[in-house]
Amino acid sequence: MRLPFLVAGWLAWAGVVAAAGDPAGPGPELWVVTTAGEVLVRAPLGHEATWEIAWLHSVAQVEIRDAFAWRDGTMLLTDQRTPFLDIAGLGHIPGRGELRDDGEGGYWIAGIDQRLVGDVHRFIIGSVHAPTTLLHAGRAYDLSASHPGVRARIEVRPP
């Protein structure tokens, strides 16, 4: 399982970016909220306005990373990285992003830029055996540790 290694590498890179700060002052915030209204994460979105969800595929037991961005008031799924294309529910659809080699023996679907309905990402938090982790601004938020199997949403809110 590559999840701890990839998360550690991402955090090291993101920590350097986050240390630079945001000279524009407070801006929008990234929120993770359960359908019951419990706030799991509330963090400044920052200048880059990007985040990732790293999750372990429950059947194939491989890490998948979905990348998102907030651009001009719109939430987009921008990229996906996966070690395999032939596992349940995954794959490349011609015309939806560009299929590339991820440089680690897997696949990178770049430039998806698909708008999320209502500018909200709805998902079910994985179990501790198929964890879901939010990666943002040099931090990893292990959502599965406290809320496995819970329906949640990611949204961007004004400060």
What does this structure look like?
This protein has one domain (3-82, 112-157). Helices cover 13% and strands 42% of the residues. The chain is built from 2 helices and 12 strands; from the N terminus they run αβββββββββββαβ. The chain has helices at residues 3-19, 143-146; strands at residues 29-34, 39-44, 50-56, 63-71, 74-82, 98-101, 107-110, 114-115, 121-124, 132-136, 139-142, 151-157. The strands form 2 sheets. Strands 3, 4, 5, 6, 7, 8, 10 and 11 form an 8-stranded antiparallel beta sheet that branches. A 4-stranded antiparallel beta sheet has the order 2-1-12-9, with no helix packed on it. The protein is globular. Mean pLDDT is 85; it is low at 4-22.
In short:
Mean pLDDT is 85; it is low at 4-22. With 159 residues, this protein is mainly β. Helices cover 13% and strands 42% of the residues.
Give a quick set of tags describing it.
four-stranded antiparallel sheet; 13% helix; mainly beta; 2 helices
Strand-helix topology:
Blueprint: H1 3-19, E1 29-34, E2 39-44, E3 50-56, E4 63-71, E5 74-82, E6 98-101, E7 107-110, E8 114-115, E9 121-124, E10 132-136, E11 139-142, H2 143-146, E12 151-157
Antiparallel strand pairs: 1-2, 1-12, 3-4, 3-10, 4-5, 5-7, 5-8, 6-7, 9-12, 10-11
- End-to-end span in angstroms? 37 Å
Indicate the mean pLDDT: 85
Helix content: 10-25%
Q: How many domains would you count in the coordinates?
A: 1
| Structural class based on helices, strands and sheet pairing | mainly beta
Largest sheet: 8 strands, antiparallel
How would you sum up the global shape?
Answer: globular
Strand content: 35-45%
Radius of gyration: 15 Å
The total of beta strands comes to: 12
Order of helices and strands: HEEEEEEEEEEEHE
